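dumping this here before i forget
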Amino acid sequence: MSHSGPQDTIDLKAIFARMVGKWWLFAISIAIALAAGVAYIKTTPKSYRVKAVLRMSEGRRSSFGGQKEEFLRGASYLKTDAELEDEITMIRSVSNMTATLRKLDFTIGYFVKENFLTKEEYGTAPYVVHMDTSSLQICGLAVHVKVDTLAGTWRVSAAGKNVHLYDLRTEKVDDGFLPKVEIDELVALGQPFKSKYLSFNIELLPGRAMKAGSEYFFFLNPMDEQLRQWQGITEVSPMSDESNIVILTTGGEVISKQERFLDMLMATYIQSEQDKNTQKGKATIEFIDATLAQSDQRLRQAQTQLQIAQSGGSMGDAASQSGAINQELFRLQDEEGRIRSKLSNLNALVATMSGDMAGQASTIAATGLDAPSLNNLIDKYNQDVQQLRTNELNVKIATAPIIALRRTVQTERDQIVQSAQALVHQTQSELGALQSRISVLQGKLYVLPQQDAQRRIATKSYELTEGIHNYLMEKSYEAQIAVNSDQVDKSVVDSARPDPPSPIAPDKKVVLGGAFAIGFIIPLLLLMLMDLVNDKIGGLDELKRLTAIPILATIPSSKRKRITPDEPKSLLAESFRTARINLQYLNANAPRQVVGMTSSTSGEGKTFCSINLATVITLSGKRTLLIDADMRRPRVHEYLELPDGPGLSTLLIGECTVEQAIRRSGIQGLDVITAGPIPPNPLELVESPRMAELFAKARERYDHIVVDASPMGLVSEFKIIMGHVDVILYVVRQGHTRRPMLRNVNELYHDGKLPHANMILNDVKAGDGYGEGYGYYTK
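structure:
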């Protein structure tokens, strides 16, 4: 069970220290990134945002300042009930955008390339292209133009694959395409260029010359491509939730082009709204004029009857006798005229609305019907027709909602016809009853002098017909005045202009800030990745984080292999002297005579630390014995430059005594037992009783015993030697010992199987944290 093992995590503190040490790497990376950012800013065309403001409604007011509904009763053709969202959709609709682009000269896009920077020219190009509209033209391909005025020629070049063809007359892209296009020809100035799929001429503009070293080319942009482009970059949104003012914005490289597009878009939309209002007004005028023609015919008939009646003689006193009858008769005749006018309007409505809807549905006027329920049906029908028109403007094909709305409009037409026919029958019944009453009154008048009665009847009939005729003429004049003087309630508040006046892209702050961040992050990620991949212990702080075992001392990196008595003040000697002092005061009440030195694997400086620790202990005046117990890879005799001879292996097999195995090291007070010849069975030798006897005798003769044991991570001898030592020193080498190697020793320490264990961090590089634990005991 693992309790406290090395963790493969990122050491942020170590990374920060490494960042400080690698500051030059960050400086170079940031400098390169900033240079790339500056190059991007210099070589990227500037992009601007252009804004315009449009007022969608200013209240339904006529040109005379009064309400239109009051100025012309029933003139619903002047009303626009579309919601603001619908009107915004209509501004960006395919039809409005297409109508706008047809008024502009955006079909040819002019470009120039200077110093690796390609930018669009609008109104500043030194030439104008005139395409041949009678033939198909290649589109979406850069056509390069180079003029040589001295030679009197101009060169046309273009190359591409899978190039589409475009018909300028129909504004449609042909279904086929050219697999490969290669054009490179010279043409005399003033002569058009003609090929199978590219025919055009250029007009050189005075005062504008092509710059030397610049590359000029143009594109033929199909209408569908223009439409997609401008719909994609044009936004229309209300200024606020309660405002009738909308903001139109677009963006691009050429300010003048964006401004012209927005201004033309608003003008086209306003004109289309004006045309719709005019069309509705004219339809109403036509209806009134048709009714007026019928009234004119009836007026002439009444005038003829009056002339006949007046030719019979002058008026007599009979008028006073029939006053009451005539008064009632006149009232009924007035009512008859009103009913006849209503009946005429109903019949006209039935004739207009009968049958299925063919083509585009149109609105109708509810004039003179005097039927609230029918008027409501007509108003609902007009609203649905208006909605249908709006939807059909936005969508070229018949979608399910449009088909459903068409059916609704047709159903409403049928309902209007049925309601009108019912009212026709009802009105005819009313007219018949009224005519019966008039006939009765007229019969009473006939008992009066016949001529006088006829004159009165003819006079009243003429006056009534004349009144109706004058009323219709008045309404006709009013409608014409209203239509001709009416203006749509939409107006331009602000023409298109840059907002803000400075470019919005590339944003210098964003680009340079991003470049700085990238230049900083790349080396940072590199260091973090290196720290994550590198599983070797990098320093004291990392070792503290990876283990709970106390750290006795840190040993600096040194070219010296051992401490000599003539250099007691060297940095290496001071570090081992620190280890000796810490060892002396560590667990002062516990035995600490025998020190066992081990490590995870070979090459970590275990023998180096054993010899030098034994040396500084000896130099402090203590009799010390150094035992090389690593019989698999003995190194002590090489460090001390001792010749081969009896050692621990010969002692344990009984071929020599302890006295014979002990050898002088050359330092007064330091004796050595080398490993001796490498045995085939070192584990069995370590387990022999002679090993215990050796330690018992050594404890009697020496103040301290330093045992250079085998690595505990590789072999098992050290587990036996642990029973003979008082203090275990585990050597970890910076940049060499791998983190997973500490897992075993951490588990043993956590389980209490390594009492009095300490660590020594060996080979600490200068500037990598050496000295953090120097001179005092650290954990």
